Each structure stands twice: as C-alpha cells, then as structure tokens.
Amino acid sequence: MRRLRLLAGLALLSGAGTQAQDLERGKLLYDTHCNECHYERVHQRLRSDIKDIGELREEVARRALETKRRTFSFDELDDIAEYLNASHYRFGAATGKKR
Hints:
Layout: H1 2-15, H2 23-34, H3 40-47, H4 53-64, H5 74-89
C-alpha cells in the first residue's frame, strides 16, 4: 500500500511538469499492456468514479501494478493517463503534443 501511494504521488507530480504527453505512446502502451484486461465499457463504468485528471493518473498508477510488466516510468504512466483522458474521460484539455 505504501508503494502504491508513493507511485501515485510521483505520477501526480510528474504530471505537473512542462513536458507534453505523447498520446500515441500512451495508446501503444495501453494497447500493449492494459487492453488485454480492459475493454471499452470499463471506462464508461469508471467515468462515474473518477472525477478529474489527478484521480485518473492515480488509477492508472494503481492499475499499472497489476500488469505483467509492473514497472512503468512516470512519463509512461502520464502518457497512458493522457491517452485515456483524450479518448475516454475528457477532463480539461489533453495536451496531445509530441515531445
């Protein structure tokens, strides 16, 4: 649990940086590591539970621990969260800019 809080906190901090998220890389990471367990309806269900981009980043960090890969960089977690935000959740404006 302590590791999860640390990972989620660091993922939130990395989201505050000036480096733009790469939506294409987020989609590739999601399709490769997350999509085997998730399907489109899961995001419809989670939309009522997740209230903002910060909560989405926390959820991505938490779920990342459940993948076979288990280790993602903070930039990768942000890219996945930004991709999901742009494609499903739409909290504020996703950056969509390439690095």
